[in-house]
Write a structure and sequence with these properties.
The chain has about 425 residues and is an alpha/beta fold. Helices cover about 40% and strands about 20% of the residues. Helix 7 packs across helix 13. The longest helix is centred in the middle third of the chain and has 29 residues. The termini are far apart. About 45% of the residues are buried.
């Protein structure tokens, strides 16, 4: 059991620690050395627990007790294990190449059930590799999953046959795919728009329990940012309905603000409140545009109707559900067509509009333990590589910055306010 557990933890580390990206290329070996359902589920259990662990903080924040947090986390781990590894194994027994089956199940998890669970996608590991990252831009993260697992398979074949030929063939293929991606890369100078990114590093529990107490801190950070640049990006959920966004924009009329905000709306037809996760675009003290998040997080932003009974045990789940927006938005920002995305929408590349010249991802990773921000940034890097556009990462809890079209990250990960060129 120990070799399986240690390999699974190494594989998961490739997604949460940037310098350890290479571990993905041999961490999945046990899946191919011992191919029984039991062995694959055992590996999957350790892998799923490791990749889901940063989410445990969110379970703690919303659960009525530590025991409930453990139960919800355990159920999530078992679900991911059976779904990803059990279904992949079943498809392989039906004749599908296991790496391909695994990548297809990852893709299925992007949409089903309840809108998707894009956690632990293996193909995000190579985005931090100096040369191999271009394979992600060529193949998408799911094609990169196929690439990484195929290399693990060839390495396992080489071990079984005591031959160097299969892994050398794998290395040659990796190099060829990355070379093609490299030749197709896009890299150009920044457009020259000076912007300030704010990451407040607040405690999410304080934000949940005492949202009004944070308003002076929000005002201070915005004032500080506007002293450094006239265009300011503020992360997901920065403004609450009680912060009176209209007055907030008027107070900073000298600048341009793009700010994540929560909205609470009353539906008169249904006689109930619902919430919106939005990005407000304000210029000259007035609201110039709004984007409403389209891909909502199940159990975080809405409770599936079939599981409404859970709200009796976890009161947080009984709050007002968020409703999705219906369309994208592209803002005209100082001559640049900028498209906003919110939080988990970074994992859905097809949401990016071709007409957009740049993308900004607004996130609030204060819900999770710090390694999740690394994984989130990997998704942002993949967007930049795929679409060959600059992508801003505007996060409340670290690693905010700009990712250039060739996947290079530029930023000050621990600065509350940083200035860079878009």
């Amino acid at each position: 059991m120990f070799p399986v557990a240690s390999s699974a933890l190494l594989a998961a580390s490739s997604l949460y620690f940037e310098p350890l990206w290479f571990l993905a290329f041999f961490g999945f070996l046990p899946l191919f050395l011992k191919t029984s359902l039991r062995e694959r589920l055992l590996f999957g259990l350790f892998f799923s627990a490791a990749v889901a662990f940063p989410l445990f903080k969110a379970f703690l924040l919303v659960s009525p007790s530590f025991l409930w947090a453990v139960l919800l986390f355990s159920a999530t781990v078992v679900f991911l294990t059976v779904y990803q590894f059990g279904l992949s194994h079943l498809l392989s027994r039906l004749g599908l190449f296991f790496p391909l089956a695994y990548a297809l199940v990852e893709l299925l998890r992007l949409f089903f059930p309840f809108g998707g669970f894009p956690i632990g996608v293996v193909g995000y590991a190579p985005v931090d590799a100096p040369f191999l990252r271009h394979s992600v831009g060529l193949l998408t993260p799911y094609g990169a999953t196929l690439l990484v697992l195929t290399f693990n398979y060839l390495l396992a074949v080489g071990i079984k046959e005591k031959s160097f030929r299969p892994p050398l063939a794998g290395l040659a293929f990796l190099a060829a795919v990355s070379a093609v991606g490299f030749l197709r890369q896009a890299s150009g100078p920044p457009a020259g728009v000076r912007v300030a990114l704010v990451q407040p590093f607040w405690d999410q529990r304080d934000k949940l329990e005492n949202p009004n107490s944070l308003l002076p801190y929000k005002v201070y950070l915005t004032e500080l940012a506007l002293k450094r640049a006239k265009v300011v990006f503020l992360p997901e959920g920065f403004l609450e309905p009680s912060d009176r966004p209209g007055e907030f924009f008027k107070a900073f009329a000298e600048g341009t603000l793009l700010v994540g905000a929560n909205r609470l709306v009353y539906d008169f037809e249904r006689g109930e409140f619902f919430a919106r996760n939005a990005v407000f675009f304000a210029e000259g003290g007035r609201l110039a545009g709004v984007y409403l998040k389209r891909k909502l997080v199940p159990f975080g932003e809405f409770l599936p109707k079939d599981l409404s009974f859970l709200s009796a045990a976890v009161p947080y789940l009984g709050g007002a559900d968020y409703r999705p927006g219906r369309s994208s938005a592209v803002f005209e920002l100082k001559g640049i067509k900028l498209q906003p995305l919110i939080c988990n929408e970074a994992f859905y590349p097809f949401l990016v509009e071709r007409r957009a010249e740049a993308v900004a991802v607004f996130a609030n990773d204060a819900w999770f333990y710090p390694p999740f921000s690394v994984y989130h940034l990997k998704a942002v890097k993949a967007l930049a590589l795929l679409w060959k556009k600059p992508v801003l990462f505007v996060n409340s809890d670290g690693l905010s910055g700009a990712v250039r079209p060739d996947g290079r990250y530029e930023g000050s990960p621990l600065s509350r306010v940083q200035v860079l060129l878009l």
